[in-house]
Design a protein that fits this description.
The chain has 443 residues and is α+β, with helices and mostly antiparallel strands. It has three helices and 27 strands. It is elongated. Bound molecules: 2-acetamido-2-deoxy-beta-D-glucopyranose (NAG) (6 copies). It comes from Carassius auratus (Goldfish).
Length: 443
């Protein structure tokens, strides 16, 4: 580092080859360090904010200058440029414009170390200076998500952490679960001039987290109109649960019936195993098994029994049962004499039996469906009559109340007409009997 000797003599103004007046790179503070000296011969500068790696243009202006030299020096008080003469050997620092009214230099590939107070000096007697603070923004690194094992087992508690370093000022770190923001625990550590920001998320993993994307997003003032983000998709392994779907609710002899075993689980439990009454399935001419499906082309009473479907993955085994009771084909249909209907028993996995029950289709008792219609009809009529009566009573009650109110007001009217309190009481008393009469009438 060599410091340029400061001459108090004037340097010749630089060539007028620059076409347009220069502008500040990123003027942050609009206010100018403007101190009016004699003849307005004072340097004027502006504070600046530049993103790491960018270019900072340092401009110093003098409104009225008599060819007195301008100088820029850095926070370490080293002279950078004296007029158009370069003083510090640093390839990143270049002259943009040097006239008697302006000295503009540029610092490219700005680093955090360039931050500080820069001074522009005007070598009048005495020397006048103006100070500009150069703020350098540290760009946050792409966030990293840690703490995720693949796959995760259902019921495991995991802590996802998202870390981004290098930001200045400290970056904002946010978590999103499938686009929806969720709150994490933030922690900020300073390391040198920059900050390391960490946000952690504690999750109790369940099967619904399978395939869910967790995104960590970093917003920062240096990332204008954009942001950095990293996404991890959870893969959750869970023990199977099984449901059986059937094609018809009631089972009569000769009917076609298809049972479908639907196993849920990750890894997917495949294939499924069908059994009847704890043993082998009957002949293939009675029942057709195709993967998850069990089909009876024509039901027969000999098909009675409990059919069970079993599914297994490395986390466990689960099964569902279907109790088949084949009834006589209806000769004369009489709904009141139905024999026990097919019921479905679900033996779900250990974890989520509630979900299953709601997911099973056709898990209704067919006997409940054809309810006696006469009772419902009568009930409806009674309800309507009761409601109408209630309405009538309310309307009548309001009507009576209103009329009673009117008469009481009339009674008090005597007071309005009276010239004094005594007369008012007399008037009121006089009307009292009349009002009483009316009240009795309506009550
Ligand atoms: C700095 O000044 C030069 C010359 O006027 C200009 O080309 C450049 O765009 C400026 N840089 C910034 C970051 O404003
Ligand atoms: C500045 O210097 C130039 C060239 O040396 C000269 O032509 C000009 O008159 C001077 N201006 C003032 C105000 O002294
Ligand atoms: C420039 O920045 C410095 C340091 O941050 C501050 O003290 C000063 O007030 C600022 N000047 C203006 C004009 O904003
Ligand atoms: C921050 O600092 C604390 C204490 O020095 C340390 O325990 C923690 O791990 C640090 N966090 C990060 C994100 O560096
Ligand atoms: C049911 O099976 C028995 C014995 O296999 C047979 O005799 C009968 O005809 C079958 N009934 C129907 C409705 O298919
Ligand atoms: C099947 O169940 C029905 C209804 O309980 C019964 O009437 C019939 O005898 C049963 N048939 C066989 C073969 O078990």
């Amino acid at each position: 580092c060599l410091s340029f000797p400061v001459f108090l003599s004037s340097f010749p103004p630089s060539s007028p080859s620059f076409p347009s007046p220069s502008r500040y790179s990123i003027p942050v503070a609009a206010t100018k360090n403007k101190v009016r000296g004699a003849q307005g011969q004072v340097p004027i500068v502006q504070n600046m904010t530049v993103t790491e790696g960018g270019i900072a243009n340092l401009t110093c202006r003098v409104e009225h200058n008599d060819n007195t030299s301008l100088q820029w020096s850095n926070p370490a008080q080293q002279t950078l440029f004296f007029g158009d003469k370069k003083a510090l050997r640093d390839n990143r620092i270049e002259l943009v414009r040097a006239t008697s009214q302006e000295l503009t230099i540029s610092i490219s590939e700005v680093t955090l170390a360039d931050e500080g107070m820069y001074t522009c000096s005007l070598f009048t007697m005495p020397v006048k200076t103006a100070k500009a603070f150069l703020t350098v923004l540290g760009v946050p690194k792409k966030p990293e998500i840690n703490g995720l094992t693949k796959p995760v087992l259902e019921g495991d508690q995991i802590t996802l952490t998202c870390v981004t370093s290098g930001s200045k000022p400290a970056a904002d770190v946010r978590w999103f679960k499938n686009e929806k923001e969720i709150k994490g625990a933030k922690e900020v550590n300073a390391s040198g001039k920059t900050f390391t920001v960490k946000s952690s998320l504690q999750l109790l993993v369940n099967r619904h987290d399978d395939g869910v994307a967790y995104t960590c997003r970093v917003d920062h003032v240096s990332l204008t109109a954009t942001h950095e983000e990293t996404t991890q998709v959870l893969e959750v392994h869970y023990a199977p649960y099984v449901e059986i779907k059937h094609s018809i609710p009631a089972t009569l002899e000769g009917q076609y019936l298809k049972l479908e075993c639907v196993p849920h689980g990750n890894p997917s439990p495949d294939p499924v195993l069908w059994t009847k009454d704890g043993g082998e399935l009957p002949d293939l001419d009675r029942v057709i098994v195709e993967g998850r499906e069990l089909t009876f082309m024509s039901l027969n009473k000999t098909d009675n029994g409990t059919y069970r479907c079993e599914a297994t993955n490395h986390l466990g085994t689960s099964h569902a049962e279907y109790k088949l009771v084949v009834k006589d084909a209806p000769t004369t249909s009489s709904p009141s004499t139905t024999s026990p209907s097919p019921t479905l028993q679900d033996n779900t996995g250990p974890l989520d039996s509630k979900d299953l029950n709601s997911a099973v289709t056709g898990n209704r008792d067919p006997n409940a469906l054809p309810g006696p219609p006469d009772h419902a009809l009568i009930g409806g009529i009674v309800a309507v009559v009761v409601f109408a009566t209630l309405c009538l009573i309310i309307v009548l009650g309001r009507y009576l109340a209103r009329h009673k109110g009117t008469y009481l007001t009339n009674e008090a009217k005597g007071a309005d007409d009276a010239p004094d309190a005594d007369t008012a009481i007399i008037n009121a008393d006089g009307n009292h009997a009349h009002a009483e009469e009316k009240k009795e009438y309506f009550i």
